[in-house]
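Hi F.,

I've been meaning to write this up properly since the lab meeting, where we talked about keeping a consistent format for the predictions we share between groups. The idea is simple: the sequence comes first, exactly as it goes in, then the structure tokens exactly as they come out, then a line or two of notes. No screenshots and no reformatting. I'm using this chain as the first example so we have something concrete to point to.
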Amino acid sequence: MKDFFDKVKGSFRNFIDFIKETRKELNNVSWPSRRETTGTTLVVIVAVFFFGFFLYVVDFVVGNGMNYLFRALSAQN
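Output, unedited:
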């Protein structure tokens, strides 16, 4: 029974040490400013819409091209 409590006590110490080390590391992180975060978020949103629209246009053109090709080939037979 004593071994069990020693393991629990050791696990609790390890957890506390982990939390302390994590807080220490988070103090070393260089966090972006609100302006930088807003700017990069805006760039990501614009890029998502741009590439979404681009892929929609490519899909539309390729889909219609394939349909035209299949209709033209089936009309020849």
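Notes:
The CA atoms of residues 19 and 66 lie 58 Å apart.
The helical segments are 2-28, 34-76.

If this format works for you, I'll send the rest the same way.

G.
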